[in-house]
Design a protein that fits this description.
The chain has about 90 residues and is α+β, with helices and mostly antiparallel strands. Helices cover about 25% and strands about 30% of the residues. It has three helices and five strands; from the N terminus they run H-E-E-E-E-H-E-H. The strands form two sheets. Strands 3-4-5 form a three-stranded antiparallel beta sheet, with no helix packed on it. Strands 1-2 form a two-stranded antiparallel sheet. The chain starts with a helix and ends with a helix. About 5% of the residues are buried.
Length: about 90
């Protein structure tokens, strides 16, 4: 059986003081687009559990903590197709 660590992992983070959770089945639908000057447009998505870094780095009072990945636009669409095919 094929396992996708990206898709199955919990997506927990803090955004402006509010704890957020993205179920793995919504991961590829919860992206943000960014423009990087000189490099073009990218998409960013949550990458696993950000909350474990609160204690490790002494960030208990931080308002936003987000561990993410930035990829070229189109990467996530391709990855979602691969995950869907492999998990059927």
């Amino acid at each position: 059986m094929w396992f996708s660590p990206v898709k199955e992992a919990p997506q927990n983070f803090i955004q402006e003081g509010t704890y957020k959770y993205i179920p793995y089945w919504n991961l590829f639908r919860r992206t943000e687009f960014l423009e990087v000057e000189g490099y073009g447009r990218f998409e960013a998505y949550s990458n696993r559990d950000s909350l474990k870094y609160l204690d490790i780095y002494g960030l208990e009072n931080i308002l936003t903590l987000y561990r993410g990945t930035i990829r070229r636009v189109g990467f996530l669409e391709s990855l979602e197709c691969i995950c869907a095919t492999r998990n059927d």
